[in-house]
Amino acid sequence: MNTAFLHSVSLRPPGDGEPERSGHPWTLPVVEALAAETLALDPAVTFLVGENGSGKSTLIEALAGAAGMNVEGGSSNFAFSTREQEGGLGDALRLARGIRRPRTDFFLRAESLFNAATYLEGMRAEPFGSGALDAYGGRSLHDQSHGESFLAVVLNRFGPDGLYLLDEPEAALSAQNCLTLLRRMHELVSDGAQFVVATHSPVLLAYPGATIYELSADGIEQVAYDDAAPVQLTRAFLAAPDAFVRRLLDAS
């Protein structure tokens, strides 16, 4: 039995009176693909890979909004916003939900963790007091490095039976701490959690049994770990870094 919180995602047809779907993000190949096909989500871990501009972050942000989370980061209980959100993609997504409901949720994006940390600082005022940080290790995220604060959220705030969306977590983490994240993901999956992760990291992509979708100009394609572009490129580079860089620079 599939015990996922989210079984799949697709794009619903435009409704009567709805603004025209033109420009970004509607012209992204991944969005056009979702209008034609349903994207199945792994009950454990789903990865989204693709070049910059392929729509990974756009899709995972829209997923967060459709699932009720704050699109700038945080849980469904976070109520801050630093800019007006445009596009309406989250409102246009159709989520097929499981019979289980997550006990907790969180959208963790490296680029806006500072804003989420600032929101938490504000929650330290009454009526929440210092207890607002208890679920994050009891220490202000602003008093830690970017990577430390990112891990503090994952290690302390994330818990069993949760739905977690991560946008390029490797941007905040060293290679060693990508391994720490990988182990924590496994612990949480074993306790009923589900992850959807946009990433460029071949380390994270190695999660056993994960479903990997590659986003490109052709839309969405499921690929094996060995065929994922970040894995192939990293292997080619590490196999002969001097020759790789020499060919790259000579080509310029």
UniProtKB/TrEMBL annotation:
<keyword id="KW-0406">Ion transport</keyword>
<feature type="domain" description="AAA+ ATPase">
    <location>
        <begin position="42"/>
        <end position="218"/>
    </location>
</feature>
<dbReference type="InterPro" id="IPR051535">
    <property type="entry name" value="Siderophore_ABC-ATPase"/>
</dbReference>
<feature type="region of interest" description="Disordered">
    <location>
        <begin position="1"/>
        <end position="24"/>
    </location>
</feature>
<dbReference type="GO" id="GO:0005524">
    <property type="term" value="F:ATP binding"/>
</dbReference>
<keyword id="KW-0408">Iron</keyword>
<dbReference type="GO" id="GO:0005886">
    <property type="term" value="C:plasma membrane"/>
</dbReference>
<dbReference type="InterPro" id="IPR027417">
    <property type="entry name" value="P-loop_NTPase"/>
</dbReference>
<keyword id="KW-0813">Transport</keyword>
<dbReference type="Pfam" id="PF13304">
    <property type="entry name" value="AAA_21"/>
</dbReference>
<dbReference type="GO" id="GO:0006826">
    <property type="term" value="P:iron ion transport"/>
</dbReference>
<keyword id="KW-1003">Cell membrane</keyword>
<protein>
    <submittedName>
        <fullName>SMC domain protein</fullName>
    </submittedName>
</protein>
<dbReference type="InterPro" id="IPR003959">
    <property type="entry name" value="ATPase_AAA_core"/>
</dbReference>
<keyword id="KW-0472">Membrane</keyword>
<keyword id="KW-0410">Iron transport</keyword>
<dbReference type="GO" id="GO:0016887">
    <property type="term" value="F:ATP hydrolysis activity"/>
</dbReference>
<dbReference type="InterPro" id="IPR003593">
    <property type="entry name" value="AAA+_ATPase"/>
</dbReference>
